[in-house]
Structures are given as C-alpha cells and as structure tokens.
Amino acid sequence: MTSVGYTYLAETLGLDALPLKRVAQVMPATRIHLAGNVLAVPAGMAPSDGNLLEQLLFALKHEGINLSLLAQVMPHIPAEQLTARFEETPSGIYLRKACFLWEAFNNTTLATKKPARGRVEPLFDPARYVTGEPQRVQRWRIDFNGLGNLNWCATVERTEKISALLNENILLRAQEFMATLPEAMIDRAIQWAYLHETRSSFAIEKETPSPDKAERFMQLLKQAQDGRPLSEDYFVGLQNNIISNVLDHAAAFRHEQNHLSNGRGALGVTYVPPPPELCRELMVELMRFANDSAQHTEPLVAAAITSFGFVFLHPFMDGNGRLSRFLIHQTLCRAGVLKNGLLLPVSVAMQHEEARYLATLQSFSRPIRDFWAVKWIDADMIELTFKGSSALYRYWDATACVEFTLDMAKRALEVELREETVFLARYDRIIRLINAQYDVRGSDLSKLVIMCLDNQGQLSLNRRKQFRYVVSDDALSFIEASTQQVLEDASGST
After folding, report:
1. How far apart are CA 224 and CA 235, in angstroms?
2. Per residue in 87-117, is it b (16+ CB within 10 Å) or e — as a string?
3. Which of 14, 89, 142, 357 is the most buried (most CB within 10 A)?
4. How far apart are CA 338 and CA 336, in angstroms?
5. How buried is residue 41: exposed, middle or buried, by Cβ count under 10 Å (0-12/13-18/19+)?
6. What is the pLDDT, as a whole number, of residue 295?
7. Contact by Cβ (8 Å): 486, 429
8. Of residues 79, 143, 128, the one with CA closest to residue 105
9. CA 433 from chain center: how many Å?
10. Model confidence pLDDT, tens digit, residues 451-464
11. What is the pTM of this model?
12. Which of 394, 444, 440, 150 is nearest to 274 (CA)?
C-alpha cells in the first residue's frame, strides 16, 4: 500500500513527525473513507507520486490541519509552483490555506498577481476542531482561528465525547448545585475542596506535605480567585511560594535543561521538555494564550491547554506539576465562571484516575522522547541533545488533554463535591440526634461519627476500647444506631 498526504510528505522529506492518529493510504476502494485508523484512498483519487504540492493540498483537504508537519513541509514547496497553481484557481479554499501557511512559515511573501477570491474560510474547520477567536488574514481571505498563534498552537479535535461534555455545561451546573446548598454547608464544602485539592495534588506526586507546605499550597489555590494575568514574575512568585527549600527557588524561567526519569541511566529518562531558549520563547506564547483566552475560548478547554501546555514546557526545575494543576483553577477564575471562592476539586478526581492522568501526559511525552539523544555520563550527569524540529513543541495535539480535563471536571462535580455535601448532611443529622440524647465532647463526637460513616455505621472493637474511658457504652451504641438509621433512610430515599 502507498502512503499519501501527511504520511507521504513525512516519509519523503524525512520530517520529524509524531505518530499520526490516522494514516492515508491507497487501498482498493471506490471513495475516500475512514476505515478504522486508515484513510482509504482509491488509486484514481490519490495525488501523483513526487508532486509535493498535490500531496500537501490532499492533506489539507482530507486530513485537516497538522501545523507541526505543515511548518516543516512549507520550506520544501517551491514558491513558483504554488504561485502558478494559485493564479489558476485564486478562489480555491485549500490553495488559499496553503498560501497563507507558506508565507507564515517561510516568512516570505509570494509574488502573486491576482488577489484571493471567494468567501472567507476558517483555517480550522469548526465542525472538526474546537477553535479560538478568528483573526482575519485579508490577503488570503482566511481566518486564523487556532488555539494560540503560529508560534505556539494547540489542536483539539471536536470528538463525540468532547462535544457531549461541552454540551453538559459542567461549570454552570456546579454553580447551580452550590446555590442549592445552605450557606453554612457551602462554606464547609468549599473548605473541604481546598483541603482535599491540596492533599491530592501532593499525592499525585507521591508526596506527603508538611503542614507548612500544605498551607502554602492552599493559599496558592486561593490566589487563583485574584484573576491576575500570567507573567514570568507572577509564575516565579507562585513557584517560590510552594517550594519550601530556598535553594530551589527560581528567579526566572529555567536557563538549564531538565528532564523526568523513573530509573537510572539513559533508559530511565522518560520525558525531556524543550531546550531552555525554546522553553522561554514558548512560555511567552502560552501566557499570551492564557491571558487572551478568558473571553474567547470555552473555559475548561482553555484550562486544559494552559495546564498541560505548562507541564509539557516544564519552565522550572521544581514545582511544575503542582503549578500546572493550579492553572486549571486560575484559568477558570480568570474566565469568571468560578465565583465566591468555589473550587472544583479536579486534583481529587485526577488522583482517583491516576493511571489515566499518566496516560494523558504520556500521549505527548512518550513519542517526543524519541527526538532526544540521551547519554548517561555518570550518576550525577546526563547529556541531553535535542535532534528534532522545534515544531514538535510549538504545535501539539491537546485533544486527549482536553477530554481528560472535561471528564475530571465532571467527576469533581458529580462525584467528589456531591459526595462530600451528602456526607456533611448526614454528619449534621447524626450529630443532632446524638446531642439530643447524650453529652459527648465535641472533638470526640466528631471523630466517632466520621468513623461510623466511613464504616457503614459500625465502630470496631479497637475504636470502642480507645474511647471507653471518655464515652459511655450506651452513647457509643447510640452513635452506631443513629448512623445506621441515617444511612438506612438515605438508602430508602434513593
């Protein structure tokens, strides 16, 4: 079978390409159609072998926009050939897209004699992609509507799942749900969310924070409500606040190479972020996107791109993971969709879906690892050399990241937050029942009720022994009975 489109271009030109989700190939077929992960192309409809421009136009028309490959392809397309073809068909949609991208990636103007014609077309088809605010390029009658710009841009395919999750309007439902709660319950639910979001963010990194570190991160989460625009100084301040070791405090985005590893030697290196110079350049573009996206991009989509984009760039030597999850909340607050201190405990949800979180991170980190030469020198030194195109980091597929973030926001609302408010309601009812019959010290009563709720209304023999000198046996039995009654009532009402 013969490859066509993007695969042909990547193979023929030896481009630095991440694995394509779909590969276009000539196959026995009567029409162009998707068969699993293969775009089947009849021989008679395939572009001719050796004609790079025809292969390019085929890819644009049938495979969509892959900026990472397009940035590398355009220098190989002869200007004269593209110009001549455009002047034959100045209204051609894909020719106009090709001309626009050719000029952008070559930083050169095509010497065309005819103006572009036809209606203005979006670069990214909104039916196929989640798009950003359109920017008109009048010369080619094209609207650039990417999630970023041509220096750094994420691509998000409008999959069935993403479309369905966006239609659920998760953030509005969160606001509506909180509005149904008594005011005292709202405050307690929010405090629970801040506490457990902190614990889970550290737990994801296999770390048990000291009380001081936990408090620092909780205060950081509360700063998200300030809605400050992102800047290097702001990021540095955030990093310094969550890193307790003064020696690890950053003064700016990194000027040295970092990496992630899960073992010894070169084989243990699992991900290498972009070189320092490229990282700093792309952080400027990420911040521009994040600051501009509040009004123009669906908030959870913007949050996913900002959060995962940040962790993939890894601009600090330490603290990147926690800051990336903070950025979800910061983005939502800047968009004005989380008010009055409300926080969706997405890290709590992520901790419960940790394997999927790792898989989502690896959807980008694993394939890009192949473009680094890693040489182990000794226990303290690894030589890292990037052998790929900067386009691999500039233009990335955020589809899996957005889908995961939307799922976690939904779980944070429907499972984590709702379960906690249900727990609090049951807890309050049990406390009232016991206080009406017995006088038990508040701190002891709280511990016993929580233990009972966590253990289906039962206190273990060890727990009874632990409290036998401060709480009577009758009171302990009443606590069990009250808890069981509340749980039974709740079961009967569902």
Report:
1. 12
2. eeebebbbbbbbbbbbbbbeeeebebeeebe
3. 142
4. 6
5. buried
6. 77
7. yes
8. 79
9. 45
10. 999 999 999 999 99
11. 0.91
12. 394
The 10s digit of each residue's pLDDT in 416-447 is 988 888 889 999 999 999 999 999 998 899 99
Mean pLDDT of the chain: 93
pLDDT at 54 over 60: yes
Say if residues 82 and 90 touch (Cβ distance below 8 Å): no
Residue 494 has pLDDT above 60, yes or no: no
Measured in whole angstroms, the distance separating CA 183 from the mean position of its chain's CA atoms is: 32
Residue whose pair of structure tokens reads 């030109």 in the numeric block: 13
**pLDDT at residue 191 tops 60:** yes
